[in-house]
Design brief:
The protein is α/β, with parallel strands linked by helices. About 50% of the residues lie in helices and about 15% in strands. The protein has a six-stranded mixed β-sheet, with helices on both faces. α6 packs parallel to α7 and α9 packs antiparallel against α10.
Amino acid sequence: MVRLYSKKFWQESWFLIPLVCFIITLIALIGFWGLGMGKPRVAVAIALDLSSSTYAEGGWLGNQSTMTKEVQAVQAYLQENSKTSFLEKPNDVLIFGFANTVEPLTSGFQSDNEQIQNELIQSVQNTNLPAKIGGGTNLDNAIQFGINSLQNTPNNYCRELLLVSDGNAPVDINVSNNAISNNIKIHGIILGESAPDLQRTVNATGGLLFNDSVDALNLLFVDEFFTYFNSNIKWIAFWSGLAWIFLWWTLMLPIDRSLQHFKVNMNVSGRFSLFLSLFWTALTLSILLYIGLPFFSKC
């Protein structure tokens, strides 16, 4: 026997309250996904390998030299950084070069992309720079300089160190520990041979590492790293998860009534529809906790 209810399911508070919550979470999801709300403030230290091997072919600032293409990739990043909308803030960027020693190429973290580019070009055009930094590759010095610079940025910023190198060099394990203690992610682009020590350091800090050709630098800087640094994926996942949870609570009464319409015992239909709502709630919350809630870290 089918139970007769005094109200239709769409008149019940057990349907209406989850429905309202579902609509609210959908609106929030549209705002964060479509409008780019919730993107983090980002400080990026970019380390360019200016060792002698990066300009062995074509000379210093030669059109085909690796170091020239590194500079062009940074310029592509800055161009993308200047396209921020009214809801976003451009990244604060610091650029430095390294070989045996480290030399800043721009003056501190700043978000004025035109100023950063002007300082970068002026620095690399300095004919004394090659002799000043030497010809070798010291990744320890480069990474430590980046960490020291980033640890002075505000705590609510995502701190990212992006290092480009064309060679393998040892990296002290204490460097990665220092980065982790300061909430800094180390990322790398290796041009040519692999770099196992750098790979270990990148993995330890939760960064990204690509091993690719010099011709892929522009693509990596813009489509991979800029997109990754400025992602609000945690907010999108959060609102998507909540919408999914409230959807199942909204469907609980319709599923219950539908099963009863097909002669399913009302105790069985009620328990089954409640089980579905609880199951998807528990599973979705577990996934969100695994991904990380944006309230605690947007990075």
